Target: LacI family DNA-binding transcriptional regulator
Amino acid sequence: MTPDIVSGVSQPPPRRPRKRSATRSVTLSDVAAAAGVSAQTVSRVVRDPLSVSDETRARVQAALTATGYVPNLAASNLASNRSRTVAALVPQINASVFADTVHAFSTALAAHGYQIFVGTTDYRPEHEEEVLRSFLGRRPDGLLVVGTRHTPGTLTLLGAAGVPVVETWGWSEDPVDLLVGFSNAAAAAAMVDHLVRRGRRRITFAGRHTSGDPRAAERLDGYHGAVRDLLGSEPRTVDAGPEPVTMDTGVALLDLALERYPDSDAVMFSSDVFAAGALQACVRRGIDVPGTLALAGFGDFELARHLVPALTTVAVPSAQIGELSAELLLTRMRGAAVDVPHRDVGYRVVAREST
Amino acid sequence: MTPDIVSGVSQPPPRRPRKRSATRSVTLSDVAAAAGVSAQTVSRVVRDPLSVSDETRARVQAALTATGYVPNLAASNLASNRSRTVAALVPQINASVFADTVHAFSTALAAHGYQIFVGTTDYRPEHEEEVLRSFLGRRPDGLLVVGTRHTPGTLTLLGAAGVPVVETWGWSEDPVDLLVGFSNAAAAAAMVDHLVRRGRRRITFAGRHTSGDPRAAERLDGYHGAVRDLLGSEPRTVDAGPEPVTMDTGVALLDLALERYPDSDAVMFSSDVFAAGALQACVRRGIDVPGTLALAGFGDFELARHLVPALTTVAVPSAQIGELSAELLLTRMRGAAVDVPHRDVGYRVVAREST
DNA sequence: GAACCTGTTGTTAGCGCTAGCGATAGCGCT
DNA sequence: AGCGCTATCGCTAGCGCTAACAACAGGTTC
Model:
């Protein structure tokens, strides 16, 4: 590497500095120069103001506002090997249930200086893997995923990430790491039980359970079990396939259910969105709900209690899932252990007018 | 490492390397070592595979999958001074109108390798500034904001960011940079016009216009102008204050309107969410809509056309706003100029049963 | 055969920040 | 005086990656 050392001190090769596109923004050392201190001290003022003397801190803070410094988090992440971000993977963000979870999660973590990335998988498992991979490039300090069923590739990535992971909105005997959720199967079974108590015997399940929504599939399982145990009859199900979770799809599911099982006395949907669409269609067509047909949803969206007739549904503590997940993650990101890493937040059948 | 160099050249201080917490993940040079090439070549395979010979590329790609390499984007951003991210600031993500915009925006940009950060301001302008500041720390390559009215601090930050900015969902004579939106005032005036044509004369405006929702305030302005011009009467308005945009608040607004202006023959709301809550309350109370009272919303959510009676509203091309914004930003981020930087996407009054 | 490409790979020097020390001064205690 | 402690601040060496150039082989042009 170094050429002849010989007698005199060999000069380093006189290369001129490379040209780099000048950075557009103020850096730590700009602020340091303005305040007459070292860059390290400015960094300390930004991250832990009390570790610097009052006088210095005042001078640095003045320089900070005078220069309009905005820290470069990429550099910070690289140097500290911490990103102070947490990634959340949800199927859909406009599905308001997840929005509540994400909002609560985000608020709780923001209070501790963490930012949240939200990625949507559009209910496509293979897409989940792709989104997760690109998120891991940002080296989040923690991960939240909706669901407990994942592709092998996703599991590998989650394991290799080397950070705490919370699975939510489901239940599993064998979670990846942390778990905050409830049993979708038990919740659906509870709804069947409710309908049976209300005298219904020919209960049809309508959902989107074959195309990438494992939660809907788990609810279907719960329905199956409950129908077998409580009614001893054959299950009646209709599936929306890959259709989006919209009220339009709900109407289509209703049509399908009435066509295939014309004698149904109740239809339970895998989402309030479906149920709301179906309910309004019934009102419009003059089908008596619950007289002729009982309808039930899942999720307890705000809409459910405002509809006429008000919609029976399963309430899930969405916001609590977000808060609790944040709490567990924070504990683990602090390096502490979590005493009870798997939390069942339960569910509640909310009986209203539609049944 | 190197042994002593004879004569008497003073050795550089023999400091051992500092201990750094070992990085948990595979780096470029790990892959390079595995493939027997330089780190730079691996980087090239990742970012521009065709710039490397077939044989080398195959070897590197094998090493890539064998090691399970996940690039560290913080390091990449720092070195290249490009983040390949775009930040979006919206008032609320669960308000489905914005969700449509964000979704379309995100999809269009993802196709070009950009990731989107979404930040919510909760309709609080001072919060917008704070969120924006923390987002700028990630040095996004572009910015999308909802609205055209901003605090001075926000304007300073937007200007200093040095990246293209799109304002959306409003209209302005003096935009910061790019603009994709429509006139909320004109849209509200068009709704008044529609109601007047339907024979309504005592039209009340109900919204959340005093507490940080500039779009609602603009709609109120449009209402004021139209009532003055078309009816020549005094405006009638009720305000939700800082209440959240929920159906519950919609019911409260209806109560307020009927209490303060009992002779109202129409109520127009600043959001479909409010209108939907009010409409269902009317159905429940037996108030004839539109016989006794016409109701109208804003946004044309899916819900609007499913309700019974179906809700008259103003349709705004939410998704188109997102797509067009992405397109303009992409052009600017490529370094090209945008020929028409301000785009009016318009609006459309959708007359349905509720009026 | 010199000069000039073109395609492919390697080398070097940072990007802006922070961890891990050192260095120094001031203080209390023996 | 000597020791140890704390508070405060600076120095250095990276974090993992990429821009910019250098180096070279093989071909083409005149």
Q: What stands out?
A: Chain B touches chain A through 53 residues (CB under 8 Å). The longest helix of chain B spans residues 214-231. Residues 15, 18-21, 37-41, 44, 51-53, 56, 75, 77-81 of chain B lie near DNA strand C (CB under 10 Å from a C1').
